[in-house]
Amino acid sequence: MRSSSDKETPQLAHRTQDGGSLRREPVISSEKTGDACIVRLAGELDLYNAHAVREALVQACADGPERVIVDLSEVEFIDSTALGVLIEARSKLPNKQGFLLAAPGLETRRALQISGLDRHFAVHQTVPEALTATL
Question: Rounded distance, CA 132 to CA 10, Å?
Fold first, then answer.
């Protein structure tokens, strides 16, 4: 039996001994390809890093590209706060049909389905598919 002093608190579970974080940065990259902007996200997208995701997506939409593709292939978890950020970011794009999601894994796809957002976003299997999709 473990004593209460053996339990890790949620805050400590994500810290290394030197005080660094074990969590991945949520935004891997943001790059322009032709008239598209591809934002690659990763790790756990939640309340704690929603601000960084929001900032990257709003910046991607700022110049009004034809399409913004959100690469979700390396996302392991997404909560309702991060889903809300996707909705908010799409509203910043003049042509909302140009806001595309690509390559969600099983857990991310499930979150999109449960929330009903898979019916409101164009979800593609791969980034190249999203790049060539008809808007």
Answer: 42
